[in-house]
Specification:
Structural class: alpha+beta
Number of strands: 5
CATH architecture: Beta Barrel
Radius of gyration: 17 Å
Strand order of the largest sheet: 3-2-1-4-5
Strand content: 35-45%
Shape: globular
CATH class: Mainly Beta
Number of helices: 1
Helix content: 10-25%
């Protein structure tokens, strides 16, 4: 019985774990009210309140690291091109 409880608990932990991913593309849209970023592939990513939204412009190339949490792609890190 203990083994069965352990297996069920492990399965629940695995099924609720966040999925981490990375993508890159061109910024299509920045929604400052919803704190979201949409790439040219149509996928949206949730930004945190500390993100400098003025630095994000449509047409910029960007690399995003993200977690999928509660069905949302949540940005954990991003890399913008050098603007020299």
């Amino acid at each position: 019985m203990r083994t069965l409880i352990g297996v069920v608990a492990a399965t629940l932990l695995i099924s609720t774990a966040a999925f981490a991913g990375q993508t890159e593309g061109l910024i299509k849209k920045v929604d400052k009210d919803a704190l979201t970023l949409t790439l040219d592939d149509g996928k949206s990513y949730k930004l945190n309140a500390e993100t400098d939204l003025d630095a994000l412009k449509p047409g910029m190339d960007i690399v995003i690291a993200y977690d999928v949490t509660n069905g949302e792609n949540v940005v954990t890190d991003m890399e913008l091109p050098d603007t020299e």
